[in-house]
Amino acid sequence: MTTIAVLGSGNVARALAGPWLDAGHKVLVGSRDPRRTEADRPLPGVHVTGLPDAARAADLVVNALPGRACLELLSSLAPHLAGKVLVDVANAVETDAQGFASAVLHPGGSLAEEIQRALPAVRVVKTLNTAHVSVMAAPRTLATPPSAFLSGDDSDARRTVGALLTDLGWPREWIVDLGDLRTARAPEAFLLLVGSLVRAWGPVPFAMSVAR
Amino acid sequence: MTTIAVLGSGNVARALAGPWLDAGHKVLVGSRDPRRTEADRPLPGVHVTGLPDAARAADLVVNALPGRACLELLSSLAPHLAGKVLVDVANAVETDAQGFASAVLHPGGSLAEEIQRALPAVRVVKTLNTAHVSVMAAPRTLATPPSAFLSGDDSDARRTVGALLTDLGWPREWIVDLGDLRTARAPEAFLLLVGSLVRAWGPVPFAMSVAR
What we know:
Chains A, B: Keywords: Oxidoreductase. 2 copies of one chain form a homodimer. Chain A is α/β, with parallel strands linked by helices.
């Protein structure tokens, strides 16, 4: 059992918190405005606190904060994150008029690497950012197998996060350990396709995959 | 029947030339050193010429030249390419000691966009760069379905290239029309994963896909 703090109170945080709770973990949700989250959209069975309290109490922290704001928010939590694994599932993109990604915010790099640079005492692992929110904890709902990628400079941390993915229903053979954090650049670039894919297919769930 | 000039005499050019010939097209291969190509590794049934002759004779031209050299080579062919569809299947990357991509040469952009900028009278369509050479003309050999992406600013050109993909054995439902050429950035970033995937799985064929 791991005490997991999911930072963020949007759809991604909700998609992850419940299944990890069901898998037997202790799950906290950290919100910038916990009272409003509890009032407007409570999470059954999950304690919602402020971001610092959630980060402090957790063994492992998940970044499901908005991609454009998370670097600053996470930096402010540095003392509570030191030594912990930080699972980054966010995407930092500029958006077009339809709300789809038109450019990545860190071309030639990645959000995950920026977080690691800002928080050198944290072990960042990038994962799940290439799957639609409805697929993150239900990969078998797609007709063809998606991939879950792991990028991070610490191999133990990647292994830890890989185990948490199996708790979300990911078969081990669909999880691809890519290696160091630089590899997060390719999964993050996948976001550039989301608008095109929705325009081509409509709003159906999908996820990046490597076919073999 | 289209007269297709495949520029390049390496494995990618060879993987495409034969199947298009078999599909009933007239296929020329353009080489920087056609006499050496004919002597060392002839292509059965395919006429090998210099790059300018191949480009001049073709209705449609395929860039299967080395990614680092192709921008300069294609620019030198500009008079022979004007008005034609240019299918870009190349990848422009920096490589590590093992020969795998360590960085893309055009971060925040793409090779395809650079070619389009250098050759404004050409209609560039990016495709197939996300598939192992053995998959490009044999997508059904993988256990799970790969995707073939089409990126280009001219929708007629994308349609033309989509038809040529079906001639290579790609089912229409595996071909994803992404839209304008900026979308080539994501498929080009896929190359950053190739080294990791080969290290994880060994030298097996694979290709990028979108699972849905």
